[in-house]
Write a structure and sequence with these properties.
The structure holds two protein chains of two kinds. Chain A is built from eight helices and no strands. By secondary structure, chain A is mainly alpha-helical. Chain A has one domain. In chain A, helix 3 packs across helix 7, helix 3 packs antiparallel against helix 8 and helix 4 packs parallel to helix 6. The termini of chain A are far apart. The relative contact order of chain A is 0.20. Chain B has one domain. Helix content of chain B is 76%, strand content 0%. Classes of the chains: A mainly alpha, B mainly alpha. Chains A and B meet through helix 4 and helix 7 of A and helix 4, helix 6 and helix 9 of B.
């Protein structure tokens, strides 16, 4: 029985994977560029993970509503950026999102659900706009968009998953501490923008 | 004895020649861009390598799954059928151009339906399925009309759609835990977000290209019949 299982395992390990020797022009570039873009800046990463952390602190239904709101509204902001519609104070808005979302996690702020969605949505527009105006030339639009959305969603997922430690006392303190770190990082980003 | 020797030598020679013939290397055809997989499987691959086609189908399957068994059964048979009808029409009377607007529209509408878990009755699900199947199938058929894949490729695509809808809708229909349905709705919101970004791309100075319009597969298919 054991040897049969070993044989199966060995066979599975020896199963040849596809070589994918030829990346088709424009495809990998678009998808990978989209996947990479949301994780290319620490300000964006911290804000998106904070959304997940805050959602986990607030519990259902916010744990799902906030990560649904953020990508959609962020994509709306990205659309505005792509269309060339200007939005004033984008970088300040991005930095402020770090501060306020960090403070929300630190203080375990529990506003009404609609207010939490509005706060998250408002900052998402800034993040999306910043991404939209920074897009690389020549990438495949659709694959870029898909990669971008997947990366954003996974960052929220990372936040939510980390935020599940909220059920333990030490976890609550760890979350609040991480909120403080995010707020401080946001303050630093704001300082950089203003100076 | 001499006759036997001649027989043996002849036998040996024939054997060597036969083995040599068998060992003769055929053309490696390592690059599928030169050979393809055959029209049917080219149709299958074309579908699975075209996000603008696979994502609306997936969204429709998820939505039908959220709406229950009856809607799922309707989508399972109606979507490949409508796609086939639309595709044949596209093959017969193709239109040229990029169909980014249709891709955006299908992403936004179908993604929003999934994300909001819209409580539509099965007859409306059927209408949506038929409409989108016909439109997307027509575009797909027009796309295939420039290739050597033809109706058999369309059949491959329709079969892929059947399998995809069967798997996705059955999975969603079987979900019982509330959070699992919410995960499906989150997937819908991602589709909406991708649609919004794609809409932005259409107005961007770097005009977007749908993936199927830039692939090596397409370049191969564009060889005149």
């Amino acid at each position: 029985m054991k040897s049969r299982r070993t044989a199966f395992l060995l066979a599975a390990m020896l199963w040849p994977a596809m070589a994918w020797a030829h990346a088709e022009g424009g495809r990998a570039e678009g998808f990978l560029a989209g996947l990479h873009h949301p994780i290319s800046g620490l300000d964006h990463i911290l804000a998106m993970v904070s959304v997940g952390l805050w959602g986990a602190q607030l519990g259902a239904p916010a744990i799902w509503l906030l990560p649904v709101t953020f990508p959609v509204v962020m994509a709306f902001g990205g659309m505005l950026g792509l269309m060339g519609i200007p939005l004033p104070g984008v970088e300040i808005g991005v930095a402020l999102s770090g501060i306020l979302l960090g403070l929300a996690v630190l203080a375990e702020w529990r506003p009404p659900l609609w207010a939490a969605a509005v706060v998250v949505g408002m900052f998402a527009i800034f993040h999306g706009h910043a991404h939209g105006t920074e897009l690389p030339a020549g990438a495949s639009g659709m694959l870029y968009s898909i990669g971008f959305v997947i990366a954003t969603g996974l960052l929220h997922g990372a936040g939510i998953t980390s935020g599940l430690v909220h059920r333990w006392n030490w976890g609550r303190w760890a979350l609040r501490f991480s909120g403080a770190v995010v707020a401080l990082a946001g303050a630093r980003f704001l300082w950089q923008v203003l100076t | 004895m001499a006759g036997v020797d001649v027989m043996n030598r002849t036998f040996q020679r024939v054997t060597v020649i036969l083995i040599s013939l068998l060992a003769l290397p055929a053309a490696a055809e390592a690059h599928l861009t030169g050979t393809g997989l055959g029209p049917f499987y080219d149709g299958v691959m074309h579908f699975f390598l075209s996000p603008e086609q696979i994502i609306p189908v997936l969204a429709l399957a998820l939505f039908a799954g959220l709406r229950g068994k009856r809607s799922s059964r309707i989508a399972l048979f109606l979507l490949p059928g409508a796609w086939l009808v639309g595709g044949l029409a596209g093959l017969a009377r193709p239109v040229a151009g990029q169909f980014t607007a249709l891709a955006c529209f299908s992403f936004l509408v179908l993604g929003a339906l999934v994300a909001s878990d819209a409580q539509l009755q099965p007859r409306y699900v059927a209408g949506l399925t038929f409409g989108f199947g016909l439109a997307l199938g027509y575009v797909h058929g027009s796309d295939l009309s420039t290739t050597s894949v033809g109706a058999l490729g369309l059949l491959g695509t329709a079969s892929s759609i059947f399998v995809l809808v069967a798997l996705a809708a059955a999975l969603v229909t079987s979900l019982r835990m509330p959070w699992t349905r919410i995960v499906v709705r989150v997937a819908g919101s991602w589709i909406v977000a991708a649609g919004l970004l794609l809409l932005g791309w259409t107005f961007h100075s770097n005009a977007p290209k749908l993936p199927s319009q830039s692939t090596a597969t397409e370049q191969r298919h564009s060889v005149p019949k």
